[in-house]
Design goal:
The protein is mostly beta strands and 85 residues long. The chain contains no helices and seven strands.
Length: 85
């Protein structure tokens, strides 16, 4: 079996906003990875990698649920909206 493809590194940190009412931030790019905490609609994140239907993100500020700024994890692409400058 060939190795799994590596995550795509985005050209730059891309600002995004969580659009889901509540979604788990996970340790890896699948629902099988444990949750770190929850993100809520309006939380600001930055994405730096993509793998399949997942982005690796970092929280930009303290989140609604209390995760500190800089917390890293994976979230499904469907639950975020990339912000245009």
């Amino acid at each position: 079996m060939p190795p799994a493809p590596a995550p795509k590194i985005l050209a730059a940190f891309e600002a995004a906003k969580v659009t889901a009412k509540a979604v788990k931030l996970r340790t890896g790019p699948s629902a099988h990875h444990p949750g770190i905490g929850q993100l809520h609609r309006g939380d600001d994140v930055s994405a730096d990698r993509a793998k399949g239907v997942w982005y690796r993100v970092s929280t930009r500020d303290k989140t609604v649920s209390g995760l500190p700024a800089g917390t890293e994890g994976w979230i499904r692409k469907a639950h975020v909206c990339m912000q245009l400058d």
